């Protein structure tokens, strides 16, 4: 039986570009860095950047890594846009929270998620 998530990993084509994106654009901490495998600390969850498997832009479906913004989701979108991140659309609001999708430097699907205001 699973007791939790140990890590999430995503394939990358260019390790340095991917590390730069997660560190400089998203503001996360690089826990370890290598040509074939690097780890990013996302507030206790390890995101592995796997250079051993080929990355290709998503064709829909598959895993999505959701990040919780430090402040409002709208402020985070504005900050990421200023760093060159392109969003597929605007923030959408649902009964279970707000989301806005984007991709990392390697074409992996990411999103910002904010739970509903209680």
Automatic annotation (TrEMBL):
Q: What is this protein called?
A: Dioxygenase
The record's GO molecular-function terms, alphabetically, read: dioxygenase activity
- Species of origin reads Curtobacterium oceanosedimentum
- The residues covered by the VOC domain are 4-115
Keywords for the protein's UniProt record, in alphabetical order: Dioxygenase, Oxidoreductase
Which Gene3D superfamilies does this entry report, sorted A to Z?
2,3-Dihydroxybiphenyl 1,2-Dioxygenase, domain 1
Instruction: Identify the stretch(es) annotated as Disordered.
Output: 95-118
